[in-house]
TrEMBL record:
Localisation per UniProt entry: Cytoplasm
GO terms under cellular component: cytosol
Cofactor binding description: Binds 1 Mn(2+) ion per subunit.
Binding-site positions, GTP: R384, R415
Gene from which the chain derives: pckG
Lineage, broadest ranks: Bacteria, Bacteria division WOR-3
Official protein name in the record: Phosphoenolpyruvate carboxykinase [GTP]
Organism for this UniProt entry: candidate division WOR-3 bacterium
Pfam family, one: PEPCK_N
Length: 620
């Protein structure tokens, strides 16, 4: 092993690696050098010079190109490599292990044999980058050290923006390190993009804490520490009694300078980023949180230090902080946008989009079609930007706190046109986990996902990333709330409720009011109305908050229309959710059915007394 490393790394890189006293790590790296056969190997020690070398290589190799504003670059993925490959993302399962029918898997022996044939010599002609990171703040019990092997300088560059440096952490931990490992190769390239996407594979081994990703460049498939690491962490947390959640973490300002921290889970296109980025509040993270119980309270950290955000629809009115950041000098990677004269353009921005330029399809012009006859949009709908959170003016100074922040509330939000009210608090932890988190649905939109209005079940917004059976995941969430001196309050929000005319009943900015009400509820400073489905705000409290927060009048008619209980719609939702858990989840905890049935009976009783649609006044 030592001979292989000395020969292939060269003296400088060899010494950098040997400074980490962990022979297991040395064997891991030596093995994949032998298997993947890179021409060169670079070990990053997180010095400014080493990080700059990775940035420079991304440009020299053509995986990124500089743009007009200093620090901005653009990366293009292959035309058919623009999103997470769910079909070829599989768990490697040992014999006798079953995660249930909802989780894509392959027998471990079969998967490793397939990978062996794909990996052999896949990095010939390339340089392997050996990078060290931590998921979460350094020197924290929350955090997990990680090693990324990749032959893509774009992937390595992205991770230096998104994740905290880990080389010194590995040196500190030495042989005590419990770490995740990621092996990625973009494979053979044509025009600087992965050529053999028919052999695109993303295989996850939770038994050995390793992820393999080959013949792809798209970040969701290749940036190992993102959703791929999330699967490993869900599995580890399930064994150790802590949670890995697909959640934002944000601080909401209350009276007298108080800041209360919330986490929030929202499926795609349901308001997650816009909530995390609310002007006047503080962001710690927009995507993934680790949660632990400490001294009777829940604490959380953002495992990332950057944002890999969808850029479609970002504009100066709805997203002023991100918009400002994207238009000044900073280290930012734009991916799969349109470029004209060194400037990026994307769907839904303020500026008029040119009729020609360069995008993920190559030279682009308005009306250009792909080989299937589909018109090619100027930027891809999944186009992204990668930026450090500290570039945002609302970044919370406690983002790197190794103790995490105390979580006062947990929010679950979906796209729902006719059932949930804009904001509602659950009765207790169990009621919240089951009726808000485990019952989360989101309606598809015509603009992005084909047929509109189809309800997609997505418990806790985490369905795609589970590495344990669904029922066990729900039970772990239920158990997590036990023995807490002060459990976070659980809320459901819905920014997409519509009236009979099909128009939204709330403005985009109204979410600021819902957050302020939730913050006051966490501290017991406003009362609420108890309904069959949870606690809702009183009109007089919302009227005051709308005036204070938005300088806006709020009418009783609007309140009654937004917060009336839609009994039949709730009953239909209970039927849908119960059917899913009865027929598609083999290990559903029995308490889930009991909580849903109890809610059903409360709704039926309310309907018998007040009718199908019940205004809040009736419950006072």
């Amino acid at each position: 092993m030592a001979d292989i490393l000395k020969e292939r790394l060269g003296e400088e890189n060899y010494q950098k690696l040997m400074a980490i006293d962990n022979p297991e790590i040395h064997r891991f790296i030596a093995h994949y050098i032998e298997v993947c056969e890179p021409d060169r190997v670079f070990v990053c020690n997180d010095s400014a010079e080493d990080v700059q070398y990775i940035r420079d290589q991304a440009i020299e190799r053509g995986e990124e190109s500089p743009l007009a504003i200093n620090g901005h670059t653009v990366h293009f993925d292959g035309y058919y490599d623009q999103a997470r490959d769910k079909e070829n993302t599989k768990f490697l399962l040992p014999e006798g292990v079953d995660l249930g029918p909802n989780i894509n898997s392959i027998p471990k022996k079969e998967g490793l044999e397939e990978l062996a044939s794909i990996m052999k010599g896949i990095m010939k002609g390339h340089e392997m980058f050996v990078c060290f990171f931590t998921l979460g703040p350094a020197n924290s019990e929350f955090s997990i050290p990680c090693i990324q092997l990749t032959d893509s300088p774009y992937v390595a560059h992205s991770e230096t923006i998104l994740y905290r440096p880990g080389y010194e952490e590995f040196k500190r931990l030495g042989r005590k390190a419990r770490y995740f490992r990621f092996v990625h190769s973009e494979g053979e390239l044509i025009n600087n993009v992965s050529k053999n996407i028919d052999k695109r594979r993303i295989y996850i081994d939770t038994e050995d804490d390793i992820v393999y990703s080959f013949n792809t460049q798209y970040g969701g498939n290749t940036i190992g520490l993102k959703k791929l690491a999330m699967r490993l962490a869900i599995n580890r947390g399930a064994r150790e009694g802590w949670l890995t959640e697909h959640m934002l973490i944000m601080g909401v300002h209350g009276p007298d300078g108080r800041v209360t921290y919330f986490t929030g889970a929202f499926p795609s296109l349901c308001g997650k980023t816009s909530t995390a980025m609310l002007e006047g509040e503080m962001i710690i993270g927009d995507d993934i949180a680790y949660l632990r119980k400490k001294d009777g309270v829940v604490r959380g950290v953002n495992v990332e230090k950057g944002m890999f955000g969808i850029i479609m629809g970002i504009n100066s009115k709805d997203d002023p902080i991100i918009w400002e950041t994207l238009h000044r000098p900073a280290e930012i990677i734009f991916s799969n946008v349109l470029i004209k004269d060194g400037k990026p353009y994307w769907i839904g921005m303020d500026d008029e989009i040119p009729t020609e330029g360069i995008n993920h399809s190559g030279k682009w012009f308005k009306g250009k079609k792909d080989k299937e006859g589909n018109e090619i949009t100027p930027s891809h709908r999944n186009a992204r930007f990668t930026v450090a959170l500290k570039e945002l003016k609302n970044c919370d100074p406690r983002i790197d706190d190794p103790e995490g922040v105390v979580i006062g509330g947990i929010i679950y939000g979906g796209r729902d046109s006719d059932t949930w009210v804009p904001v509602e608090q659950s009765f207790d932890w169990v009621h919240g986990i089951i009726t808000k988190g485990a019952s989360l649905e989101s309606e598809t939109t015509a603009a992005t996902l084909g047929k509109a209005g189809v309800r997609k079940f997505n418990l806790m917004s985490n369905l795609d990333f589970l590495s344990i059976p669904i029922g066990r995941y729900i039970q772990i969430n239920l158990d997590f709330g036990r023995d807490l001196k002060k459990p976070p309050l659980i809320f459901g929000v819905n920014y997409f409720l519509k009236g009979k005319d099909g128009n939204y009943l709330n403005a985009k900015t109204d979410k600021k009011v819902w957050l302020k009400w939730m913050e006051l509820r966490v501290h017991g400073e406003v009362d609420a109305i108890k309904t069959p489905t949870g606690y809702i705000p009183k009109y007089e409290d919302l009227k005051r908050l709308f005036q204070e927060v938005l300088n806006k009048d709020y009418s009783l008619d609007d309140y009654n229309e937004q917060f009336k209980l839609r009994v039949n719609e709730h009953l239909a939702k209970i039927d849908r959710i119960s059917e899913i858990y009865k027929t598609k989840v083999f290990d559903t905890p029995e308490i889930l059915f009991k909580v849903l049935e109890d809610q059903r009976q409360r709704l039926i009783a309310a309907r018998e007394k007040f009718g199908d649609y019940i205004i809040p006044e009736k419950f006072k």
